[in-house]
């Protein structure tokens, strides 16, 4: 008989106070790819379009190849942007969640990163609600990271 392996999902909250979403997301995506993982970004439509442009042009000499929503390339993409919380066309084990968007299922999710703007009362309140919901979920480990005055991440919970 084969032993059953319990999979624990790690969900990290990133409270952005010194960095914009785009800067934090690029940093996390680079680390994801360096670890040999794929990443799915779930966000609302207006944000998706801006992130799509950003990932192609964030540095003059660099870019992150990716796909978006119903675009082609899901069979070879390492990063995907989606506005549909019910889909994960690249079967990414890492999720990046913005603006209160949550996946409909947590199956096969190894890590999730919830990024929220500390300057937005609405996003801070949404993150508090998500923290309570996620903390009550079985099979989940949640952590909270805030930025110090120099923009470095500090684990706070």
Q: Give the H and E element order.
A: EHEHEEEEHEE
Mind telling me the C-alpha Rg? 16 Å
Low-confidence stretches: 1-6
Helix content: 25-40%
Number of domains: 1
Q: Give the neighbour order of strands across the main sheet.
A: 3-4-2-5-6-1-7-8
What do you see in this structure?
Helices cover 27% and strands 26% of the residues. It is globular. The protein has one domain: DNA polymerase III subunit chi (Rossmann fold), CATH 3.40.50. The protein has 157 residues and is α/β, with parallel strands linked by helices. The longest helix has 15 residues. Strands 3-4-2-5-6-1-7-8 form an eight-stranded mixed sheet, with helices on both faces.
Describe the structure using short key phrases.
disordered N terminus; eight-stranded mixed β-sheet; globular; single chain; 157 residues; 27% helix; 3 helices; Rossmann fold; 26% strand; alpha/beta
Can you lay out the helices and strands and say which pair or pack?
Layout: E1 9-16, H1 21-34, E2 39-42, H2 45-57, E3 67-68, E4 79-82, E5 94-98, E6 111-117, H3 121-135, E7 140-147, E8 153-155
Parallel strand pairs: 1-6, 1-7, 2-4, 2-5, 3-4, 5-6
Antiparallel strand pairs: 7-8
